[in-house]
Amino acid sequence: MTVKDIMSCITEIAPLQWQEDYDNAGLQVGDLNAEVHKALIALDVTEELVDEAIAKQCDLIVSHHPLIFRGLKHLTPQTYIERVVMKAIKHDIAIVSMHTNLDNSYLGVSRVLADKLGLTNLHILQPSTDEPELCGAGMIGEFGQQMKEIDFLNLVADKIGSPCLKHSALTGRMIKKVALCGGSGTPFMSDALRQKADAYLTADIKYHDYFVPEGNILLVDGGHFETEQFTKELIKVLIKKKIPTFAAEIAETNTNAVHYFCTK
pTM (2 decimals)? Predict the structure, then answer.
């Protein structure tokens, strides 16, 4: 198999043209036509992750977040990004990233999070103008039975494995209709409000954004890594579905850059 073959397993449901203008999804390091035999799948690419790939004799890393967002002016040991590129090249490891193209797919990041929570009747929260049924930001769906807000928070914390959740003031309503966006989804809060969701789950919410709901919706910040972590499983499923014999495994290295200190 080639790097291009493995990429096509994912771009079939998340074409690269669906990525945002600021993004750099696709091939990060290596040759599209290079032969690969084993892939390590992760959310981020770090030095520790490359070490794991070397130890497991992987010649391909498939990540969600791109290693390289901006052009590199040199390759020196100054930054972790440059060190990772140098180490990957030295050990003949290709790096591919599937970022906002996978975020924007109906079958992508937010869809798999919605499935983990048990939501049904799913629709894209902010559909694209060109392919509204297949491409767009976030997801909105419903629970079979409504639940109390505290039960919803407990469900979210359990499913994403979070030690704590940030949220806006409780509204006193029952939760049935839920909007969500894996990763940084604050810009789509207005869509959740417009579609009268009872709760909106996302990450990277700024302080003043918690005032916006004004009691009309429960706003929940589950953490960037936590709300996107299931992307690793999704990527593996997509590869194995198309090429069952290809060796693809989820990394053991925890790449979450955020750590929590909890007093209880």
Answer: 0.95
